[in-house]
Amino acid sequence: MSEAIFGQSAELASVERFLDEVRVGPSALVVEGEIGTGKTTLWRAAVSAARARGYRVLACHPGESEAQLAFAALGDLLQGVLDEPHASLPGPQYRALKVAVLMEDPEDSPPDQRSVAVATLGILRSISEQSPTLVAVDDPQWMDRASARVLEFALRRLESERVGIAVALRTGEPHLVPALVHRDFPPRDPHRLTPAPLRQDALDALFRARLGDSFARPILAQVTAASGGNPLFALEIARAMLGGEVRPQPGERLSVPGTLQQFVRGRLADLPTDVRELLSMAAAVSEPTIGLLEKAASRPPGLLATIEVAVRAGVVEVAGEQLRFTHPLFASTLYHAVAPGRRRALHRTLARFVRGPDERARHLALAAEGPDAAVAAALDEAARGAAARGAPDAAADLSEQAYRLTTRGDRAAGYRRRLEAAEYHFAAGDTGTARHLLEELATTVEPGRRRADVLRRLARVRYRSDSCSVAAELLTRALDEAGTDVSLRAGIERDLAWAVALCGDVPDAAEHARSALGSSTDEPTRRCCPSFLPRPAWPTSCLAQACTPR
Fold first, then answer.
1. pLDDT tens, 57-90?
2. Is the same domain home to 246 and 282?
3. What phi and psi values does residue 356 have, to the nearest 5 degrees?
4. Backbone angles phi and psi of 194, in degrees to 5
5. pLDDT attached to residue 357
6. What is the number of other CB atoms lying within 10 angstroms of the CB of residue 163?
7. Is the model's pLDDT at 298 over the cut of 80?
8. Are the C-beta atoms of residues 108 and 539 closer than 8 Å to each other?
């Protein structure tokens, strides 16, 4: 491991101690640093060392473009694992996990996130019995919310299992998995590493290994001072000197740009136009592959030669069919440098070739110039698919996008999408956003059955976040709005019975219960509309029909 890394002997020793601890129980390694300091290099060293020891490694490195794809990171972590038998995992949990990561189609009832999370915990326990296991996450700030919730749930419940978590994150960068860095996982304090700035000897070894060249000691001193020991900065300065763009002068500071962003732009500007165009397309998709680029770019056989130019420049790496940027900043800079109109055209093209309804809908949404009924419908479909896989977080985001692209005259679709987004947010545990959306609907929807339905759903949210008395007040208002709709009134009376009983007024609760029993409801309503007390999931068809909530 030490042969591939320079100037980090103390940090590598900490990695080894961390891996030793994994043999006896949960342990955590957090590598934190600024851009270009080598945190991902240390993270990869931990992954390589774990594999060399015979540990099972579950690794993922999420990217910005996949942050909204439900269970994308979880699917990467469990790649190949679910093809193996896990006798200790109950069948329903095993199936819930396969549905979540697109290995099986959902049935009538979608898996809720708790089922997926419990199944993930079961998988970690199962494989850690066979060998020590390392869960490795690079750049967790880009992890999709559905995966983050599941992973956090599983990690918090580890006790004596031989499972380690290694994460590399940027200093001060918010992310979605607090269990990765908080003291409550594992029982012992995590190992925290910050890559040390490289000294002259380490930079010299780095230049010889990466660039096949070296510099005189005085110039090495200048590079060390200018880069602050940051390996990425130092490599950029060295490349510029070897190319004749930066000429060191005795006694003078090196003439180099002041920020890494400028370095990145300079490196990308040196690439031929056709290479930058191809890489811009790769930066816009969550999982760029050579096959996808061949289809989307409509390029002749010279495509591989074009990619090879980017590989030689150190911007991308190729492993089989997969193409990966050597640093996320390259992808981000390329993508945001594309003019808005051309970027929309790029997403419109990619939507024809990407796999999966979620990503196709995302590209269609990014390609839209304004409200678009067809794109909004595609987002609806993707939202329901995400909900069916037990990812209400992603479903909520997709429904919000569908609402923004709803044509102005289609008020019914706008109402339904706002309502669905609120329900998805509530299912994901985001009661604040659900309440905001429902309160907004309650002030804009005309009086009558629709507003009664919104108030009933709002009562369920307020019961969870406030109190039964607030819920009872909202349900009473809903009852006044329900008019002669017998089915709706019966459901509201039933919910009022629960709310009032929980507030302690049993006689009034009994009266509402009798009123609910005295009303008749048809079979679809009884089957589809649950009670006031919340449950983790409900049929997607309920949302599509805008039936009364549980």
1. 999 988 877 888 889 899 999 988 888 877 677 8
2. no
3. 90, 135
4. -125, 115
5. 82
6. 27
7. no
8. yes
On whether both 39 and 148 belong to a single domain, the answer is yes
Nearest to 350 by CA among 297, 397, 302, 386: 297
Do 65 and 166 belong to one domain? yes
Structural contact between residues 318 and 290, judged by C-beta atoms closer than 8 angstroms = yes
Tell me, yes or no, whether 361 and 456 share the same domain: no
Print the domain residue range for 538: 445-545
pLDDT digits (tens, 9 = 90+) for 466-523: 888 888 889 989 888 888 888 888 888 888 888 888 888 888 888 888 888 876 444 4
CB 436 within 8 A of CB 426: no
Is 181 found in the same domain as 220? no
Strand ranges (E), 269-338: 316-319, 322-325
């931990």: which residue's tokens? Answer: 46
DSSP 388: H
Domain of residue 82, CATH code = 3.40.50.300
Tokens of 454: 């919104």
Nearest to 331 by CA among 59, 43, 136, 62: 62
- Higher per-residue confidence, 545 vs 472: 472
Measuring CA to CA, how many Å separate 359 from each of 68, 280, 298?
Answer: 9, 17, 20
Q: Which helix (H) or strand (E) holds 163?
A: strand 163-170
3-state secondary structure 338-359: CCHHHHHHHHHHHCCCCCCHHH
DSSP 36: T
Distances (CA, A) of 256 to 205, 332, 412: 22, 22, 58
> Helices in 102-175 by DSSP H: which ranges?
113-130, 145-156
> Comparing C-alpha atoms, which of 267, 157, 223, 231 is closest to residue 5?
231
- The rounded Cα 18 to chain-centroid distance in angstroms is 27
pLDDT of 133-192, one tens digit each?
999 999 888 888 889 989 999 998 988 999 999 999 887 766 666 666 665 666 677 888
In angstroms, the CA 76 to CA 285 distance is 16
Exposed, middle or buried: residue 156 (CB in 10 Å: 0-12, 13-18, 19+)? middle
- Domain identity same for 142 and 219: no
CA distance 236 to 368: 38
Residue type, 358: D
The SS3 assignment for 62 reads coil
User: Alpha-carbon distance 108 to 281, whole Å?
Assistant: 37
Indicate if the pLDDT at residue 539 is higher than 70: no
The DSSP 8-state label assigned to residue 28 in this structure reads E
Q: Is 523 left (phi over 0), alpha (psi -120 to 50) or beta?
A: alpha
Question: Position of tokens 């049935």?
Answer: 107
DSSP lists the bridge partners of residue 113 as: none
Location of structure tokens 């050579």: 290
Residue 403 falls inside a structural domain: no
Distance separating alpha carbons of residues 497 and 510, to the nearest angstrom: 7
**3 state DSSP class of 240:** helix
Angle, to 10 degrees, between the axis of helix 411-427 and the axis of helix 392-404? Answer: 160
The domain that contains 316 carries what CATH number?
1.10.10
Residue 497, exposed/middle/buried by CB under 10 A (0-12, 13-18, 19+)? Answer: buried
Total tally of structural domains belonging to the chain? 4
